[in-house]
Design a protein that fits this description.
By secondary structure, the chain is mostly helical. Among the domains are: 34-144; 411-533, no CATH class. The protein is 69% helix and 0% strand. The chain is built from 28 helices and no strands. It starts with a helix and ends with a helix.
């Protein structure tokens, strides 16, 4: 059918009129509402609520574009607008309850962040019934709660919806981590075990863990570790990027040796492997755990009681260490000398596995040229491992091998001579320890500067050897003479003072129990040998 030009023009004009008419109903004159005060005056005169939602959207968008100082100037007007609308809603006939709820919730959602009194007023008009609040309104009230009347935890429990809502829980978790403004002002926002329990309770209920941003995870874990609750991470869903960053910045998170183990197990539990760098950073802290027992902290006991959670059951520690050592070699992360030495120390010192330490030594000895510093460090470490193993197992025959491995160029290594002195003393030859000391000390008297560690290690071993024979008077004289002659520096003065204190405690604990005395002195000796290793 052919349409006439006149008919088409008539239809187009009508369509154009309908579009304009519809648009005009949805638009407001923004020039008349350039600030909130102008809108309040407008409502005073017109008392018309038909444009209220559009007005609220307009001012919400406008405020977002203003500077903090500019928003500050509108602070009271924001509340006055809410007050004006609340009165109009009460006094305007035929306004539905649904419309009232919509406007009051919109006020909370859009303006609570600028003036919390808006939320207080609007919620009061909603009869302080959480069922009248939108989810976004609840979220805004919690997020911007100043904490003067209600701490965030109490507020959350009074307003949380019947059905768990991830965003509201995440907002609450962030607020608890940061602290309410009143807590921050009074410097009371530190997370303690009570607050950590609250945070972890919320965390456990969030169904979509991927909503939690990396910074929130890092802040949470910082508190977890500072409160000695590292075992919790084995129960958590943790992104690999978060675990990597925590391990990378271990000191910032106050990680203890056990925490590296928990993070390692958490990575496996979450289905990914640590990067090579994180694996190397975790290796020695985890390996050192073999030297002590892994005890549950009091705070972990509190969390288990309050939250009813159980940390992941850990694999046997020797198996974990073996697994990590294998990964290091499989991934060819053992290309530098430090990692090579750590593998030997892990096996020889921490695992008490001389055979594996020898295996590493023989493997790496073939890959490093003779006469190099790296080769010397390799031999030095292995010599100390033999001394360590001999004392640990009470087998003096290890000394022969240990002596043969001591690097001799450019001078015999002082740390190895100091280690052998401890072995001589342990097996009852204190005279040989003294004789060895006197010969060795002369090698490191010149130059005075640069040989402080060498002289310090030799003197430390002599004093421990003397204390092993319970000649505390002679030991003190050795320390005083070396201090006077400046053959030891302040670092070793402090170390030696600590050893004397430890010795005093041992004597007090052991009294006439010679077996117990030697066992405790053995711990000092073994610890000292590990400290001497390159």
């Amino acid at each position: 059918m052919m349409l006439s030009r006149q008919y088409l023009q008539t239809v187009l004009k009508a369509t154009s009129r309908r579009c304009f008419s519809s648009f005009s109903k949805l638009s407001i004159d923004q020039n008349k509402h350039s600030n909130i005060h102008a809108t309040i005056n407008h409502l005073d005169q017109s008392k018309d609520l038909s444009e209220v939602n559009e007005l609220l959207n307009h001012h919400s968008e406008r405020l977002q574009k203003l500077s903090t100082d500019q928003v500050e100037k509108e602070y009271m007007n924001i509340y006055n607008l809410a007050l004006k609308l609340a009165k109009l809603l009460e006094n305007t006939p035929d306004v539905s309850e649904e419309f009232k709820k919509e406007v009051l919730n919109s006020l909370i959602e859009k303006f609570t962040r600028y003036n919390y009194a808006v939320a207080t007023l609007a919620f009061k008009k909603l009869l302080e019934d959480k069922r009248n609040l939108s989810l976004d309104a609840v979220n805004e009230i919690i997020q911007h709660n100043p904490g003067r009347v209600n701490p965030t935890w109490n507020l959350y429990n009074s307003l949380k919806p019947e059905q768990s809502h991830d965003q509201i829980m995440l907002t609450t978790m962030k607020k608890l981590l940061k602290g309410d403004p009143v807590e921050i002002k009074e410097n009371l926002n530190k997370v303690d075990i009570v607050k950590l329990t609250q945070i972890l309770e919320i965390y456990g209920n969030i169904s979509q863990k991927d909503l939690i941003d990396e910074q929130t995870y890092l802040e949470l874990l910082k508190n977890v570790f500072s409160l000695h609750c590292g075992a919790v991470v084995t129960w958590m869903v943790l992104p690999s990027s978060v675990v990597e960053k925590v391990i990378e910045a271990g000191d910032d998170f106050k990680l203890e040796n056990a925490d590296y183990l928990f993070l390692y197990e958490a990575s496996i539990n979450n289905g990914y492997s640590l990067s090579g760098n994180s694996l190397l950073r975790s290796f020695m802290p985890i390996s050192r755990l073999q030297l002590s027992s892994l005890n549950e902290s009091e705070n972990i006991k509190i969390l288990k009681e309050k939250l009813g959670f159980e940390p992941l059951e850990l694999a046997p520690l020797p198996d974990v260490v073996d697994e990590i050592r294998e990964q290091i070699q499989e991934l060819e992360l053992d290309d530098n000398i430090e990692v090579k030495l750590n593998l030997i120390k892990s096996a020889g010192f921490h695992s008490k596995d001389l055979a594996t330490a020898i295996k590493y030594f023989q493997l790496y000895q073939t890959k490093i040229p003779d006469g190099t510093l790296q080769q010397n460090d390799l031999k030095s470490t292995m010599s100390l491992v033999f001394v360590y193993d001999g004392i640990y197992k009470d087998e003096s025959k290890m000394n022969d091998v240990a002596e043969a491995l001591v690097p001799q160029t450019p001078l015999p290594y002082a740390n190895n001579i100091a280690g052998l002195m401890l072995s001589y003393a342990w097996f009852g030859d204190g005279e040989r320890a003294i004789e060895t000391y006197n010969k060795a000390l002369n090698l490191f008297l010149e130059p005075m500067s640069g040989n402080e560690v060498n002289r310090g290690q030799l003197t430390q071993s002599l004093i421990i050897a003397t204390l092993l024979e319970k000649d505390v008077g002679l030991a003190r004289m050795i320390k005083e003479r070396n201090t006077e002659n400046k053959t030891i520096d302040e670092t070793y003065e402090i170390k030696l003072s600590s050893i004397f204190k430890e010795y005093g405690d041992i004597v007090e604990q052991c009294k006439d129990n010679e077996t117990l005395f030697r066992e405790k002195m053995k711990k000092i000796i073994l610890r000292t040998l590990m400290e001497y290793a390159p």
